[in-house]
Design brief:
It comes from Achromobacter seleniivolatilans. This is Transmembrane protein. Keywords: Membrane, Transmembrane, Transmembrane helix. With about 180 residues, the chain is an all-alpha fold. The longest helix is centred in the middle third of the chain and has 39 residues. It is globular, with a radius of gyration of 20 Å. The relative contact order is 0.12. The C terminus is likely disordered.
Length: about 180
């Protein structure tokens, strides 16, 4: 058995602090992403000139939605790549005590998009569920409670999928070579 696996990460020390720091950074990144995502449509709407406003010009609505989608893609794709790297590094730091970002990226031999898509759906469903729960609390109805409960179930299921995908990616990177030995801290 590996010495890193025999010692629990929660026992403290530098490895535990690295794990906690990376976990907090991942959570803060996701929260800020959801916050900024909610502000982008408002910012684009108020920055459009009156001649192109969706209210005054029928083609303005298509332009507004195209700008919102483009802005969200420019924001979400790099942040999802960062979150994917942090999710893989979270597994590595729990096992070896090192971040290993550079070596994990080099050692993974399969596509990166499945984990990115799973992270996207996890964050999007978490945002939709977070918006639905207060509505269910203040406007108690069967549909709002069912939507909130369904969102929680979907979030938990997607969290299990993302954790499993991260663990498999870490295992595959360990098969290709030693990740923790030369990891970038």
């Amino acid at each position: 058995m590996d010495d890193a696996l025999a010692k629990p990460i929660w026992s403290g020390g530098a490895a535990g602090l690295k794990y906690l720091a990376l976990f907090v950074l991942l959570v803060v990144t996701v929260i800020q992403l959801l916050s900024v995502t909610g502000n982008i449509p408002i910012l684009i709407y108020f920055s459009m000139p009156n001649s192109l406003s969706p209210v005054r010009n029928p083609t303005g609505e298509a332009l507004f939605f195209a700008l919102v989608i483009a802005a969200l893609l420019v924001l979400w794709i790099p942040v999802m790549v960062l979150c994917r790297a942090m999710a893989l590094s979270l597994v590595n730091v729990a096992v070896s005590g090192q971040y290993g970002l550079r070596t994990l990226r080099e050692k993974i031999r399969f596509g990166r998009w499945p984990l990115l898509v799973a992270l996207f759906f996890l964050i999007a469903s978490a945002g939709a569920t977070a918006a639905a729960i207060p509505r269910a609390q203040y406007h108690l109805s069967v549909s709002s409670v069912a939507f909130s409960a369904g969102g929680i179930v979907v979030c938990v299921a997607l969290l299990v999928v993302v954790v499993a995908m991260s663990a498999v990616a870490y295992r595959e990177s360990r098969v290709n070579g030693s990740v923790g030995a030369s990891g970038a801290n």
